[in-house]
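Section handout 9: paired folding examples.
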Amino acid sequence: MREDTKSLQLADVISALDTTLTTLKATGIDLTYRVGGTSAALLQGVHLPVGDIDVLVAQRTDVDAVATALSPFPCLHATSWLPQGAQYFARYEVNGVHLEISTVEQETESDALECIDSGPWHHYVQITCGQHPVPVVRLELRLATELLRDRPDRYKPLLDHLATHGFDADLLNRAMVARDIPLARQRSIHNRLMSSR
């Protein structure tokens, strides 16, 4: 999250997504996408710092189509290739919220990474957001990302939520292995979550 911004609230995320999806529908765009990142966690009831909305699409032409549809909104980063992240990327401001649209063009053998290859396309849940059903990446994949980044202000709320509401232990284990989380840390996370069952 950018240091100069306050954390988004659930209403901010819902408003920006609802406006975006309504705009896409009005322009005839039927998009396959996933919402990932901290905003996906917030939509699933996890209270953690959120700086923007991350929308993953499968193809560069999808980024271009969304950018065209969102042209009435402020463009903060025009569509371009970001080689360091292997992403085709654009950023817009919708209802005061930064909304990022991108591909992630990496391959992996794992199906348990949050935004790479098949992970987000297979492991998601539908959340109603305004008038739209929104596919959001499962929390197990987000937790592994936050453990990798070692951001306790993000991973502790995720752990608390999963401990209370349940989780897919196999998926989480695969996600932690795919992120190369040290084995001792994996055991600690497993013990923390299993003790809550």
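Moving on to protein 2 of 2.
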Amino acid sequence: MCGGVEARDAEKSYKVYFPSPKAAIPVLGAGGEDLGWVRWGRRKGEPGASPQGGWAKLETVERGGWEKYKPQRVMGLVQRYMEKDAERTSHWFDMVPGFALECLLVGEGEQQRLYIVTTSPPPEYAWIHDRWPLLGSIA
């Protein structure tokens, strides 16, 4: 379900894990604009009107389940993402060049949050997790 990512800024690379309340991911807007680092999801106990969690199932997005949040489709710019298996072992996957994480951006200002869109895993990785980040082309 993508519990962590590795992303870069101009100076260095950062490993970001969803449980951290400071977790953020660099985002590219639908028009190609750099939106900077946006907070990843909302954790239990954090204020805000956006959904708790950090992921959005593609099937829920497609049937309109996120429309009340007026989401924008954006891309999370990462070099790698991490999935944990049933034994809680981390598995890191390099991002395919020219691709990024498909995400939803909801809210405004300090309440703005990013949610990674998930789908079924590739068959060869179904043993790791039943949800997988959806990748999209940025080329």
